[in-house]
Amino acid sequence: MNRTRLLRVGLKVLRLAAVLLVVSTLCFFSLALLPGDPARLMLGDAATADAVATLRAQLGLDLPTMERFGHWIGGVLQGDLGESYRTGQSVTEILGERAPVTVELIVLSQVIALGLAVPAAIVAAHRRRTGTDRALSLWVFTALSTPDFVVGVVLIWILSVHLGWFPANGYAPWSDGVGPHLSSLIMPAIALAGTSFALYQRVLRADLVETLRQDYIEVARAKGLSLTRITFRHALRPSLLGLSTQIGVTVGMLIGSTVVVESLFGLPGIGDELAGAVTARDYVEVQGLVLVIATCFVLVNALVDVLYPVIDPRLASSRRTRGGAR
Amino acid sequence: MSEPLLQVRDLVVEFRTANGPLRAVDGVSLDVARGERVGIVGESGSGKSVLSRTAMGLLGRKDARISGEITFRGQDLLAMSDKQRRDLWGREIAMVFQDPLSSLHPITPVGQQIVETLRRDPAMDKTKARARAIELLDMVGIPQAERRFRSRAHELSGGMRQRVMIAIAVANSPSLLFADEPTTALDVTVQARILELFDELCRELSIGLVMVSHDLGVVARHTDAVSVMYAGRISEQGTVDDVLRSPRMRYTSALLAAIPRIDHGRRALPQPIGGLPPDLVNPPAGCRFAPRCAHAVAACADQVPPLEPAADVPGHAFACWNPTPTEVAR
């Protein structure tokens, strides 16, 4: 059994590596297809053709695409993501500075999304097809169909411009104190949470409705347990599989959404950096960032995979014994 | 059989459907005394499960239109608040359900599911509840109870699962136990042992048992009194001996004739009942069994036969215009 488990883990790692290789290759060559030249962009329209050619040679942009790809991949395998054309700063360093902001933003947005979605799903599942359920579902669809930046702009308009509760823009690091730090993140986190909230509420509501129809819920009722206990101790856990899958996928997509939200709120995160790097055709940096984002996506989903049997132990034992005693 | 534990009087349960109201239970009365085992027999759709769920209170005024009276130990169950009813469930009234696999929680270990019921009693702390749960598992005949405590439902056999369900149901020594087709999902050898367990528990804990079943054999061997239900009504009621040995209502006779018997030889092949049970949204005007009855007379079609005691045996009631003569009965 241990050998098969080892084999399974090995296969997973291999698959992960293959996904990352495909992602980096695609990313590299699609960037190479983009019009625009980083050297030209850096030096401006006034620069001479000679100066541009010299800079291109310095940056190694004169080499054939395949060769550049080989160099880059070679560096990646040794843990070197290369240096930004624009600043000369190593991409690893940039990530070290910027990733914490994005990670914090995403975590905060997920806390908000789950904090609202779980209760909303529970209420809707218990009162399905009533006014409450319909009102919630209307709210959810509104959240789902409103783009993040629209929510962001509305939040800025109400909470900053009119009420003055939070700063409209800019980032305050932890060193400025917990209060200012959190208030600089709260609005972008809310803007980012909208879609996740909607997806989570829908998935969990549907699974809960299904679970509440099960015989063991009637048995729990017949035991005289309270509705709260039935919901949290009996119904919730068997209904979490769909939600955890959804979280894995959503968190991966959120890294992409941070591009817009971070730019809108002026947060120095990965999304903001990525937007700048694409505009400047800073190939090396874009590749580095995309590779890290893809790795995070794959890792989050691998983690969800590992969590399944923890949430529902039947999944673990059904792998061990085919079928089961009847 | 002194004080009545459960008294059901003229119970009517009506569901709203797209085609109009459906009377699943129509004017049923029933008594259960402490330590008494009452069987309810009928085909699927006869209303027996709805009757037991309503009598327990699981089906309430929110789910259906209910009229009549249900009294448990003199208290009006239908007038109770949800909280009051919940206080009875699991402590005074319990139920064993048909399919033990889907009735047990798929993730929580079975022992924990018993502990949860035991902890309804505020005096029961975690350690005591655990020890008691293992005792209960042992009592219902689960070997290696201590080890099985941590098992999950899918790791147990069908018979063991139902034993766990019974342990959950009797955990707080209820006075009234409902069993809704408790052995239908089990194979015959396991069935016999589970039914013996019910007999034992009823005797030892003097539990009043309401056993719902479509299986006349089960009811004949493991209950004291029986009510035969057809299309939401009770068609015959009395002690097991009276009803099943000398049935009067034609439906009961037909049911008995439909059972294959080895000891009767080739000449007595089972006689199936033709036709289907009536549509309960638009039931027949008179006796509901009349359209399928081989002995229907003119009155059967338009007059409802009242459930009345037999002249010679007062405890034996039946609703039939043309009853099976006593001497012909087996």
UniProtKB/TrEMBL annotation, chain A:
CDD domains: TM_PBP2. Its main location: membrane. Keywords: Cell membrane, Membrane, Transmembrane, Transmembrane helix, Transport. InterPro entries: BPD_transp_1_N (IPR045621), MetI-like (IPR000515), MetI-like_sf (IPR035906). The chain crosses the membrane at residues 12-34, 105-124, 136-159, 179-200, 240-266, 286-311. Belongs to the binding-protein-dependent transport system permease family. This is Putative glutathione transporter, permease component. The lineage of its organism: Bacteria, Bacillati, Actinomycetota, Actinomycetes, Propionibacteriales.
From TrEMBL, chain B:
Gene3D superfamilies: P-loop containing nucleotide triphosphate hydrolases (3.40.50.300). GO terms for cellular component: plasma membrane. GO terms for molecular function: ATP binding; ATP hydrolysis activity. Keywords: ATP-binding, Cell membrane, Membrane, Nucleotide-binding, Transport. One of its GO terms (biological process) is peptide transport. InterPro entries: AAA+_ATPase (IPR003593), ABC_Ni/Peptide_Import (IPR050388), ABC_transporter-like_ATP-bd (IPR003439), ABC_transporter-like_CS (IPR017871), Oligopep_ABC_C (IPR013563), P-loop_NTPase (IPR027417). It is found in: Cell membrane. It is a peripheral membrane protein. It holds the Pfam family oligo_HPY. Belongs to the ABC transporter superfamily. This is Oligopeptide ABC transporter ATP-binding protein. It comes from Nocardioides simplex. The lineage of its organism: Bacteria, Bacillati, Actinomycetota, Actinomycetes, Propionibacteriales.
